[in-house]
Amino acid sequence: MHRIMLEGRGDLAEWRDAARGLAMAGVPPEEVEWVEKGADKQLFWEHDAAPPLAGSRQMTVPPVFIELAESVICHSDPARFGLLYRLLWRLQVDRRLLDVASDEDVSLARLMAKSVSRDAHKMTAFVRFKEIKAEAENGRRGFAAWFEPDHHIVARKAPFFQRRFADMDWIIATPKGSAAWDGQKLTVSTEPCIKPDLADETDELWRTYYASIFNPARLKVKAMQAEMPKKYWKNLPEASLIPGLVADAEAKVLDMAKRQATEPLPFHQRLQEAAARVPAAPQPLSGTLEALREEARHCTRCELYCHATQTVFGEGPADAQVMFVGEQPGDQEDLAGRPFVGPAGKLFDQVLSETGIERQALYITGAVKHFKYEPRGKRRIHQRPNLGEVKRCRWWLNLEIELIKPKLVVAMGATALFALTDSKMRLSDIRGSTIPLAEDRMLFVTVHPSYLLRIPDEDRKAEELTRFHADMTAVRQLMQSFS
Q1: What does the alpha-carbon distance between residue 36 and residue 51 come to, in Å, rounded to a whole number?
Q2: What is the DSSP string of 383-406?
Q3: Mean pLDDT value of segment 350-360
């Protein structure tokens, strides 16, 4: 067994020289024990050096291995030395080994390289320089910073700081080494440093600034902690404020919502005068579909209007013989102010066209007129309206039916079925059936097009799409029976 002891401070050449000697001597990975100095107090001096270069084995590796090894060797896990040697050994047999992402050694090496890369990125984000009072001999101002990396990344990132802060003298000290720039020479050391006391009056100034720019309405705790993990907080002056700012965020948002402007904007008067010169739009006749649409624009019957962009009312001929009722507007419908214009609407239009139904002849609306959603980052995720919201919005749906007087109403989905019948019947039990609503009006039940888009299995999706085609064909036959 060969026992190789290394400094292990991110120097690839140190490992490479030892690994080359072992490999050329034909020593397999299982006969090598790699030890990092400081990890084992017992010194085996007779095994600290690699065997002399001997043998006829020619060691070659692809360039991508060198790039990977330069990252992995910076990792703090002592297992990195043995991992790289196993890869070196196996690459002599399989030159394409690093292309096999599922290989255990390759996967572990990639994860180590990714961890080193992330640590390096965090160093560029969280190094904070403090000015040192004493000026340098060249008259330039001096700055110092303390950072605690997980891995041996100081040498890798020192050139970045040289380019970024070339106009000042600085030193970055870490438990894993240091880097310094004096305006002419970049000096890197792998010797561990002791944390200096860099606290000064600027810390309080920075905390004041951070507190003033903190926007509680845009707080996303998980995203904040992903970008600024808690392990870095102890060296950031503003971190002491974060728990309190997060705890008070909700109350501050509510307070912001209550506050109103006490004085009009400077140009308010001119806006008012310009608005007064605009001719008033003619009001629709009472008792018409247009009057109902205008009234619905200001609906506050439930809380959904608070977050939706606008009311999405029905559209189509006022004397349409067939009315289609869906669930509620989606994201695109909410922005456009029209029903069935999003992905489900496009599928709906396609099936109508394939079955010979003209959309222009239909009145299309929703059981609920405002978009209900859950915000997730920049996306708005659809949420099904509850029974109370459906019941409150049924008032508009009933008025639409009274004005249009359709002979056939098509309920698409369980929400529409409940809104039209106040029944909790299973949609699958009555799908494709016609149910009398009034003396001269029938109800036809089918699924909502968005249901078809959510089916993950392609075979089942094709099957359900065929059934939806059949439902629309049945609707067309019912329409023909009216004429």
Answers
A1: 18
A2: ----HHHHHHHHHHHHHHHHHH--
A3: 95
DSSP conformation letters of 6-47:
E--SS-HHHHHHHHHHHHHTT--GGGEEEEETTS-SS--GGG
Judge whether 76 and 152 are in contact, CB under 8 Å: yes
Q: Are strands 322-326 and 362-366 parallel, antiparallel or unpaired?
A: parallel
Contact present, 370 and 305 (Cβ < 8 Å): yes
Distance CA 427, CA 58 (A): 73
Task: Find the helix or strand (DSSP H, E) in which 442 lies.
Answer: strand 441-446
> Cα torsion at 56, 62, 67, 68 (round to 10°)?
-90
Burial of residue 308 (number of CB atoms within 10 Å: 0-12, 13-18, 19+): buried
Task: Using pLDDT thresholds of 50, 70 and 90, give the confidence band for residue 44.
Answer: very low
The pLDDT value recorded for residue 137 is: 60
**Residues whose CB falls within 8 Å of the CB of residue 164, separated by 6 or more in sequence, listed in order:** none
pLDDT in tens, 261-295: 555 556 667 777 887 888 877 777 778 899 999 99
93-143 confidence digits (pLDDT tens): 999 999 999 999 999 999 999 999 999 999 998 898 888 875 556 667 889
Tracing tokens 């309405």 back to the chain, one arrives at 217
> For the stretch 88-117, what's the b/e string if a residue is b when 16 or more beta carbons lie within 10 angstroms of its beta carbon?
bbbbeeeeebbeeeebebbebbbebbebbe
Phi and psi torsions of 298, nearest 5°: -110, 25
Query: For 418-436, what is each residue's pLDDT tens digit?
Result: 999 988 889 989 999 899 9
DSSP E strand boundaries for 105-248 = 130-132, 142-146, 169-174, 177-181, 186-189
What's the alpha-carbon Rg for the chain, to the nearest Å?
35
CA separation for the pair 24, 56 (Å, rounded): 7
The model's pTM? 0.49
Distance (Å, whole) CA 417 – CA 423: 7
Predicted confidence at residue 248, as pLDDT, reads 84
**Pairing mode, strands 186-189 and 177-181:** antiparallel
Q: Is the pLDDT of residue 196 over 80?
A: yes
d(CA 102, CA 125): 32
Secondary structure class of 425 (helix, strand, coil): coil
CA-angle at 348, arms to 347 and 354, nearest 5°: 90
Handedness of CA 244, 248, 250, 253 (dihedral sign): negative
